[in-house]
Amino acid sequence: MQTFHPQPIAWPDNAASIRAQVRSIIAAHPRHPDPAKRANSWAVADPAFSARLGAEGLIGMTWPKEYGGHARSNLERYVVLEELLAAGAPVGAHWIADRQTGGMLLRYGHETEKQRWLPGMARGAIFACIGLSEPNAGSDLASVRTQARKRGDRWIIDGQKVWTTGAHFSHLMIALVRTAEGSQRNEGLSQFVIPMDAPGVSIKPIIDLTGGHDFNEVFFDGVELPETALAGIEGEGWKQATAELSLERSGPERYLSSTALFLELLRHVGESPDPAVRQLVGRLAADMWTLRMMSATVAAKLADGEDPALEATIVKDLGNSFEQAMPGLVQATIDIDPASTTALTRVLEHLLQVAPSFSLRGGTREILKGIIARGLGLR
């Protein structure tokens, strides 16, 4: 039976200088006055901060230089990501472009699309979203009804996507659509690069129960695209999209979304906490360190050209369980006046509301359990 096999991580020799560079950038950027904005910060967009990171060469780090990248290693990039997330930096504007879209375009995109989008992404000036989920499909990613029809040398897109994170500030979408009429499930699907300002694209916000605006509905009404907008091979969209999910599921954001709460907890209890709090801090620290090593192992495997899809899924599932559980554990252990407005209270209040959603993004827990079971030969 295949299991998760952690491996020694060959951290780059310049890791310390990279950390110092990132911390200097964060220290120089105005901090949001609401400490809750430092929790789940990869969903907090700040285009000015993204532009600063781009100017410092910290977006598109692993991409080739001819497309605006910097030809650095995956583990150098990993060091940057964990520094940004641990500090609660507002990286949400460029996050998807840097994590998924850029790599997808490099691997599958037409040269015209690479030249159009990648340099701006690396500068922190062009942002992207992913068009996967559709209405009335739940977590069934293969239930794609959005259609792409060929008309001469143009593709015509009609349909709808939902729960599209960041669509309201993105410049392009990578969308999974059905190109083979009458095909079923994961057959006959293709990926397209869709400019968000193309005629026929409209966006409707989805406001969550906390008043936040992360998600959107996106509608396509006769959207015309050139042949170059097809990413990869027609009909291979399912294989391409699921391979990209390894990048989405394994990063440090899968266990660091609640780190701001952990840090505020340490500040709140001081150097001599009672035994129950001491035990909680030890438990959370041990879990976080273990998840860090698992996540970094996946990054190392990706850097070696492997496809650690199973390991990435395990990291996502365990990481979500950890960051979802933290607010409830802190609430049950610390005596907090609910009327207080301390940083700890603000962060805890925010995460108690939003943490249930953490296991939805990147695949629900039920979907992930099925993938893990298949990978282990259990189904």
What does this molecule look like?
The chain has helices at 15-28, 47-55, 74-86, 95-108, 111-122, 237-250, 259-269, 275-303, 309-333, 343-354, 365-375; strands at 128-131, 147-151, 154-161, 172-178, 189-195, 201-206, 215-226, 230-231. It is α+β, with helices and mostly antiparallel strands and 379 residues long. It folds into three domains: 15-127, Butyryl-Coa Dehydrogenase, subunit A, domain 1 (Orthogonal Bundle), CATH 1.10.540; 130-236, Butyryl-CoA Dehydrogenase, subunit A, domain 2, CATH 2.40.110; 239-375, Up-down Bundle (Butyryl-CoA Dehydrogenase, subunit A, domain 3). The strands form two sheets. It has a four-stranded mixed sheet with strand order 1-4-5-8, covered by helices on one side. A four-stranded antiparallel sheet has the order 2-3-7-6, with no helix packed on it. It is globular. The model has no long low-confidence stretch (mean pLDDT 89).
Total domains, how many? 3
What string gives the helices and strands in order? HHHHHEEEEEEEEHHHHHH
| Assembly status | single chain
Helix content: 40-55%
Average pLDDT reading: 89
* Global structural class: alpha+beta
* C-alpha-based Rg, rounded: 21 Å
Q: Please summarize the sheet with the most strands.
A: 4 strands, mixed
CATH architecture of the largest domain: Up-down Bundle
Helix run count: 11
Indicate the overall shape.
globular
Strand order of the largest sheet: 1-4-5-8
End-to-end distance, in Å?
Answer: 12 Å
Count of beta strands: 8
What is the CATH level 1 assignment of the largest domain?
Mainly Alpha
